[in-house]
C-alpha cells in the first residue's frame, strides 16, 4: 500500500466485504528467506477488510498486470466487489490467499508467528517493517484500526537480528 510498484491515477480507501486480512503467508523472498522466514498478509474468507484501491490508467493496465502477476504469483487473482470511501461500489482486481498454495497458514503456533514477524528478513526488508509501513499507509487513507495496527505494538517490543 505504501509502495504499490506501479503508476496509478488515484488511491482511495476501500472496504472488501466477505474477506479478512491475516498475516498468514510464509515469506521466503521479499520479507523473509528460507533461513529466516517472515510473514506477509493474505486475504481469507469471512469478515470485512479495509484497505486501499488504486485506479490505474487503461493504457497502463497490460504493463501493471504483468508487474502484479510476477509479484503476486502466490495469490489467487479475482475481480471482487468493494466499496470506496465516497460510497461508490466498484469491482477491482484483488489478490486472495490461495487455498492450494502451501505458503498460507490459517493458524500457526504463537511462537512461530512472533518469530517470523520479529526476525523475518528478505530482499525487501524486515517483516516487521512490512507491518509498520502497511499500518502507516492505512492510517494515511483514514483507516485508523486494523489487524496490522494491532500488530505494531507487538513487534515494537520484539528484537530483530541484523542482516
UniProtKB/TrEMBL annotation:
Keywords, in A-Z order: Lyase
Its domain of life reads Bacteria
- Provide the GO MF annotations for this entry: glutathione specific gamma-glutamylcyclotransferase activity
Enzyme Commission number(s) from the entry: 4.3.2.7
Q: What GO cellular-component annotations does this UniProt entry give?
A: cytoplasm
Q: Would you kindly state one Gene Ontology biological process term found in this protein's UniProt entry?
A: glutathione catabolic process
Q: What class of enzyme is it?
A: lyase
Q: Name one Pfam family in it.
A: ChaC
Q: What Gene3D superfamilies has UniProt attached to this entry?
A: Gamma-glutamyl cyclotransferase-like
InterPro entries attached to this UniProt entry: ChaC
Record's protein name? glutathione-specific gamma-glutamylcyclotransferase
User: What organism does the record attribute this protein to?
Assistant: Candidatus Phaeomarinibacter ectocarpi
Amino acid at each position: 500500500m505504501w509502495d504499490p510498484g506501479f503508476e496509478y491515477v488515484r488511491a482511495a480507501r476501500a472496504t472488501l466485504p466477505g474477506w479478512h486480512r491475516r498475516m498468514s503467508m510464509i515469506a521466503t523472498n521479499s520479507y523473509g528467506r528460507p533461513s529466516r522466514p517472515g510473514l506477509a498478509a493474505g486475504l481469507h474468507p469471512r469478515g470485512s477488510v479495509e484497505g486501499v484501491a488504486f485506479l490505474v490508467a487503461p493504457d497502463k493496465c497490460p504493463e501493471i498486470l504483468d508487474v502484479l502477476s510476477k509479484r503476486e504469483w502466490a495469490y489467487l487473482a479475482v475481480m471482487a466487489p468493494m466499496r470506496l470511501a465516497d460510497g461508490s461500489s466498484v469491482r477491482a482486481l484483488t489478490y486472495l490467499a490461495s487455498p492450494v498454495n502451501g505458503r498460507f497458514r490459517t493458524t500457526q503456533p504463537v511462537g512461530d508467528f512472533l518469530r517470523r514477524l520479529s526476525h523475518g528478513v528478505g530482499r525487501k526488508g524486515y517483516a516487521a517493517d512490512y507491518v509498520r509501513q502497511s499500518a502507516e499507509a492505512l492510517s494515511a487513507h483514514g483507516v485508523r484500526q486494523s489487524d496490522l495496527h494491532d500488530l505494531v505494538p507487538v513487534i515494537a517490543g520484539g528484537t530483530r537480528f541484523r542482516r
